[in-house]
Design goal:
The protein is of the alpha+beta class. It has helices at 4-38, 47-58, 64-77, 100-112, 118-129, 134-142, 157-170, 243-246, 251-257, 278-285, 309-318, 328-342; strands at 81-84, 90-93, 172-181, 187-189, 195-206, 209-216, 221-226, 230-239, 265-274, 292-294, 298-307, 322-326. The strands form 3 sheets. Strands 3, 4, 5, 6, 7 and 8 form a 6-stranded antiparallel beta sheet that branches. Strand 1 (81-84) and strand 2 (90-93) form a beta hairpin. The relative contact order is 0.07.
Length: 345
Amino acid sequence: MYDQPDYICILYGEKVFAMASFDQKLRTLRLMQILLDRTDDRHILNASELCRILEQKYDISTDRRTIYTEMEILEKFGLDIQQKKGKNPGYYIGARDFELPELKLLVDAVQSSKFITEKKSKELIQKLEKLCCRTDAAILSKYVFIVNRPKTENETVYYNVDYIHNAIYENKVITFQYAEWTVMKELKLKKGGAFYVVSPWALTWDDENYYLVAYDAAAGIIKHYRVDKMQHTEILDEERKGEESFRNFDLAAFAKKTFGMYGGVDTEVTLECRNELAGVIIDRFGHDVWLVPQGKNHFTVRVLVSVSPQFFGWITGIGSGMKIAEPENVKQQYKDYMLDVMKNY
């Protein structure tokens, strides 16, 4: 048995050792934070500067020799610690999970996404900025132009995405109410507020909007819904249906044939185009389409599309350099579409 004084001394010693170990771990983490936040190949910090920042910002005292040891620890941990020697020596972070051009792409995607609210866009961009050093973060912030861009005001889109992902993972059906915009700029529930019940299978981004691709068991077909127009979404305790329909489902092909995510009758259509429109066709339908030369100035291409007013609007927008060659019933539908439009003038 230990006497009471010795016992207290031993406990006190353990406490001191524990505190020292805690401070050491905290110092290592703070150094990692400083390096990630402040350094790159153009911004280097030497051991003395790192000691000073630790002291001034975090009230952690250390010496240069300890810094050298900490750099070895962080390098073994997996950080790409680079050391510059010579006239202006120091340390910096080399490779990161995301390079600046990659972060710019992500920032652009967040900015241009209409289904992300202005508030959430700013929050996401601020989080992206934390993935690079502060000087690069300042560069990123110069490219942020969110104000006056078309943005949804529906914050529930994030909850909807979460529900949909969970339902797909758990193989469950979801239910929701669906809304549409009114002339008063308000979202009004469709079908008198009735709840839709569908089996979610995929999420896709098209025309700067987020869509749910799902199987409607009642109608026996695949449908799509704007995620930002879904309200009061819930997961039901019922297994998904439509597995057969989605077994060989090609989401990319679905997006190619569906203009603006407006449904229509799937039809193989032959388009006759001027040669300078080859890029337009490839951008829309991909590189695997066959462009068949027709004389010196034209080519034809056969593609699968969902025939809809949006498809006809796309044809019209291209202009006289493109026309529907086949089939005859689609040509007639397009003529009827144009005549109906002309009635407004």
